[in-house]
Amino acid sequence: MTDSWHSLIAESEFPAEGKIATKVGGWHVLVAKTDEGLFAVNDRCTHQAALVSTGRIRRGAVMCPLHGARFEMATGRCIGGAYKDLRTFPVRVEGGQIEVCVPNEAPGMDETPVVI
């Protein structure tokens, strides 16, 4: 499987709240700016398939709004519950644009959030 870089937003236009959720190449992606830098994860809780982007980000971790599981943005590691880690994606700034690298193959059902 190969991956491709996609431009998301100008770095200067990144939301003040420190996160942006978008869909890129079929993947739901959450990009967050923490004290440690920019990070991107699959926007799907591994427990109940909810969008984690609707949760708050504190101390470099995003909290699932459904049940409170916390995931480190830098590594995707679950630190507040016994759930599978989130998939992470490389993120970079090129020419003032924030870019994320996602697989060219669309996500399967186990990596797609339930969106109502």
From TrEMBL:
Q: Which UniProt keywords apply?
A: 2Fe-2S, Iron, Iron-sulfur, Metal-binding, Nitrate assimilation, Oxidoreductase
Does the record carry Iron-sulfur as a key word? yes
Listed PROSITE patterns = RIESKE
Record has Transport as a keyword: no
Alphabetical list of Pfam families matching this protein: Rieske_2 (PF13806)
Against InterPro entries, the record matches this protein to: Rieske-like_NirD, Rieske_2Fe-2S, Rieske_2Fe-2S_sf
Name all Rieske domain ranges.
Answer: 6-100
In Swiss-Prot or TrEMBL terms, this protein is called Rieske (2Fe-2S) protein
Species per Swiss-Prot/TrEMBL record: Novosphingobium jiangmenense
